[in-house]
Amino acid sequence: MSLPRVTVTRQLPPAVEDRLRNLFDVTFNPEDEPLPRARMEAAFDNADGVLTTITETVDRDLLTRPSRKARIVANFGVGVNNIDLEAAKEAGVIVSNTPDVLTDATADLAIALMLAATRRMYETEKALREGRWGGFRATQWLGMGLQGKTIGIIGFGRIGQATARRAHLAFGMKVIYFNRSEPADLDFPAERRDSMEAVMAEADVVSLHIPGGGANRGAISAERIALMKPTAYLVNTARGDIVDEPALIAALRERRIAGAGLDVFAEEPKVPAELVSLENVTLLPHIGSATLETRTAMGMLAVDNLEAFFAGRPLPSRVA
Ligand code: 8YV
User: Fold this and answer.
1) Candidates 56, 98, 103, 289: which one to mutate for ligand 1, based on the most atoms within 8 Å of Cβ?
2) Cα torsion at 154, 160, 161, 162 (round to 10°)?
3) How much is the pLDDT for 216?
4) What's the pLDDT tens digit per position in 67-90?
5) How confident is the model at residue 1, as a pLDDT?
6) Cβ–Cβ < 8 Å for 80, 64
7) How far apart are CA 164 and CA 240, in angstroms?
8) Dihedral, 71, 74, 75, 78 alpha carbons, nearest 10
9) Atom of ligand 1 nearest to the CA of 77
């Protein structure tokens, strides 16, 4: 019996690629550049399954092509805003993602960005590297202490809760959050607020953990940013499109908020020049899940989904 054909759109950690080779008739992308449209179309027409990442847009056209053969899209990543789930459902194409395995790594990075922003790490390291450090001064480069401050979590799912847990247990922060539902079994105190506005107005650090796309696009609007305290910070490890980027840039430039830490951007890999020029924001190139352990676990979970699909078993993490 011939092996299922799988196309993998980007390079993955070696252990994951080895496993893929053992299980499937697999086509890799050794150049590791985003696949041009024609190669994406060929992948969907020739393979039984496609293993995608955030750099590939899987749209209605691709999913509904009469020549499409692929029956499963296994996304490497928990966010699936790169895939048209409605069209996948209509076309009968199964979609899976990689939840849980990246929760800790992403929450760790949210905390790193919170520390970087509140302790002015980018601004001060830049000054040092540029030879502008004139020696210790007791009143220079003062940041904000976290103890007793309030972290406001927008989107209290797995990563939001893991970030909140760290903020409370490691730094003694009070946790408030906005989420449609209330989680059942928290092992730390957290207070729910009934609107995003309430959280943004009250928090000293706002950390974003809602999915991208759809109704969440632009959720962190100019109006909502305007509710933040002038001493508050914004952290985004979720998706760039949930923030009105020009509005955030204006608030940072005019010091209407104290600073920000961003790992994601509206049009990756483009980062607005004005954002790059600002000193009160730390900018990272979407590395939330970028540890060898986590990226390997994500790849293995994507393969688990493919393996289950081709064996006719229920998928460990199916989203559509
Ligand atoms: C992934 C992410 O590495 O899982 C997600 O949703 O944002 C990242 O951690 C990225 O999406 C790769 O597809």
Assistant:
1) 289
2) -150
3) 98
4) 999 999 999 999 999 999 999 999
5) 74
6) no
7) 20
8) 120
9) 4
Does the CB atom of residue 97 touch ligand 1 within 6 A? Answer: no
CA distance 42 to 53: 17
Active site residues: 239, 268, 286
Torsion sign across C-alpha atoms 166, 172, 177, 182: positive
Q: Is 79 in the pocket of ligand 1 (CB under 6 A)?
A: yes
Residues 275-284 have pLDDT tens digits of: 999 999 999 9
Tell me how far apart the alpha carbons of residues 308 and 313 are, in angstroms, rounded to a whole number: 5
Q: Which residues of the chain have pLDDT under 50?
A: none
pLDDT at 283: 98
Sequence ranges of the domains in the chain: 5-101+292-311, 103-283
> Domain 5-101+292-311 is of which CATH architecture?
3-Layer(aba) Sandwich (3.40)
Compute how many other C-beta atoms are within 10 angstroms of the C-beta atom of residue 193: 19
Provide CATH code, domain 103-283.
3.40.50.720
Domains 5-101+292-311 and 103-283 alike in fold: yes
pLDDT given at position 92? 98
Reading the block at residue 82, the tokens are 């790169």
Distance CA 146, CA 142 (A): 13
Any ligand 1 atom below 6 A from CB of 46: no
Q: What pLDDT does 302 receive?
A: 99
